[in-house]
Amino acid sequence: MADIEIRTFELTDESAVIALWIRCGLTRPWNDPKRDIERKLCVQPHLFLVGTTGQKLIATVMAGYEGHRGWINYLAVAPQYQRQGIGRLMILEAEQLLVEAGCPKINLLVRTTNSEVIRFYERLGYVVDDVISLGKRLESDES
């Protein structure tokens, strides 16, 4: 496994983070990654983590807690560093920060077609909840 440092996102990381999210297939037209970063920096920015090796940004995870349950978003590991335990380290760090905030439960969303990622989370103790995720866009990011 690469020698990895996990730290809080810094403004100078923005372009590398967006490039990583694009390479990992996490971006969607209706979610402008630049706006998602701007929004996160206004709410619990200490829960937006990046993983680096040397000067190279290779991983991200964005967490949040609203007093009822925590959320994990934007877990990404550069393809050449996947399957080395880095995603697990990123999740464990985010979980620890959520525990320290008093969070009793974490939720996350995975596309139903992404069976490999579902198995990854199941190995970390996550289970499929018998729920339907509903959403409502309050602000459009599409140009």
From TrEMBL:
The keyword Transferase applies. It holds the Pfam family Acetyltransf_1. Gene3D superfamilies: 3.40.630.30. PANTHER family: ACETYLTRANSFERASE, ACETYLTRANSFERASE YPEA. It comes from the Bacteria. The lineage of its organism: Bacteria, Bacillati, Cyanobacteriota, Cyanophyceae, Nostocales. This is GNAT family acetyltransferase. Residues 4-143 form the N-acetyltransferase domain. It comes from Nostoc edaphicum CCNP1411. It is an enzyme of class 2 (transferase). Keywords: Acyltransferase, Plasmid, Transferase. Its EC number is 2.3.1.-. Transmembrane segments: none annotated. GO terms for molecular function: acyltransferase activity, transferring groups other than amino-acyl groups. NCBIfam families: PRK03624.1 (NF002959).
